[in-house]
Amino acid sequence: MKWFLMSVAAFTLVACAPPPPTSPAEKAARSAAAFEFTATRCTQHAGGYSDAVALQKEAQSRYATARKLGATEQQIAEQKKIAVNALSSAEFLAGSNEACKSLVSHAAKAAAQS
After folding, report:
1. Three-state DSSP string of 30-87
2. What does the pLDDT look like over 8-50, one tens digit per residue?
3. Is residue 10 part of a domain?
4. Structural domains of the chain, count
5. Residue 38 resides in a domain
């Protein structure tokens, strides 16, 4: 029974995986959304107020980059929806703390690479 439940959870995770961005503009918009949600939903894991402010500034910078690359407001809204759905799925499957830890970790990695 345990293996069955784990298989169902794994299948659900794979089935709910978001599609990859189709352009650099979408990639930048999705990245910006991830930074925004990290700042707003995972502040306790990000380090506090000053880190949340830095995450918001990074999100705004990445939204500006997405717009420069040609992203429309509709595309940005779609990428926000994809990002929030992915976070909600992760929260459902792993719990809010684990989802936030993962999101903060990925945000730090992405910021270090830019």
Report:
1. HHHHHHHHHHHHCHHHHCCHHHHHHHHHHHHHHHHHHHHCCCCHHHHHHHHHHHHHHH
2. 444 444 555 678 888 999 999 999 999 999 888 888 887 888 8
3. no
4. 1
5. yes
Assess if residue 5 is contained within a domain.
no
Domain span holding position 80:
23-113
For residue 28, being part of any structural domain is answered with yes
* CB of 32 closer than 8 Å to CB of 66: yes
- Cα separation, 113 vs 39, in Å, equals 19
Residue 1 is classified by DSSP as -
Task: Summarize pLDDT for 36-95 with one digit per residue, the tens.
Answer: 998 888 888 878 888 889 999 999 999 999 999 999 999 999 999 999 998 888 888 888
pTM: 0.79
Helix axes 73-94, 2-15, angle to 10 degrees: 170
Q: Look up residue 23 and give its two tokens.
A: 């352009």
